[in-house]
Automatic annotation (TrEMBL):
List of catalytic residues: 115
GO molecular function, one term: metal ion binding
Protein name in UniProt: Nucleoside diphosphate kinase
Recorded name of the encoding gene: ndk
Record-linked PROSITE patterns: NDPK, NDPK_LIKE
Keyword Flavoprotein: no
InterPro entries noted in UniProt: NDK-like_dom, NDK-like_dom_sf, Nucleoside_diP_kinase, Nucleoside_diP_kinase_AS
Organism name: Methanimicrococcus blatticola
Physiological role: Major role in the synthesis of nucleoside triphosphates other than ATP. The ATP gamma phosphate is transferred to the NDP beta phosphate via a ping-pong mechanism, using a phosphorylated active-site intermediate.
Binding site for ATP: 9, 57, 85, 91, 102, 112
Localisation: Cytoplasm
Keyword set, alphabetical order: ATP-binding, Cytoplasm, Kinase, Magnesium, Metal-binding, Nucleotide metabolism, Nucleotide-binding, Phosphoprotein, Transferase
Catalysed reaction equations from the record: a ribonucleoside 5'-diphosphate + ATP = a ribonucleoside 5'-triphosphate + ADP; a 2'-deoxyribonucleoside 5'-diphosphate + ATP = a 2'-deoxyribonucleoside 5'-triphosphate + ADP
Enzyme class: transferase
Taxonomic lineage: Archaea, Methanobacteriati, Methanobacteriota, Stenosarchaea group, Methanomicrobia
Amino acid sequence: MEQTYVMIKPDGVARGLMGEVLGRIEKKGLKIVGMKFAVMEEAKAKEHYAEHAERPFFAGLVEFITSAPSLSLIVEGNDSIKIMRAINGATKPAEAAPGTIRGDFAVDTGRNLVHASDSPEAAAREIKIHFGDCAPLTYKRCDDDCLYE
Ligand code: UDP
């Protein structure tokens, strides 16, 4: 089963949206198999966003991401990488469709509430950065048998 890394960023935590985001993930039928609630270390934030290191928003992004608690998740399910990107919506809230998290709750690209890996390679890399050797959990949801053909 495919796994992806999801983060509820400090703005999502501060705005009391953890339950809203977790509820959307769970109701979709994806399974949360890892969870870590912490203030992200600067080194991890820099590694996570390394592809943006030369962009003008990088320093501010790292400062924001490490400024307060964020919730890191490992989310599992069929096509979980694509599905989580769809649940989150476009990076720019103005382009995010209503019904997505960013479309429903955000107005600024720098405060767009959530992150989700954009490829299998990114998912593996990001899960490793944030969860290290801490293995995802294995458990049965009572609707597992209804969710899959
Ligand atoms: N970001 C920003 N300003 C920009 C572009 C991106 O602050 O002009 C931040 C924003 O928080 C975004 C993150 O950098 O979510 C990573 O950007 P990416 O293009 O990878 O978008 P995502 O994968 O988060 O949709």
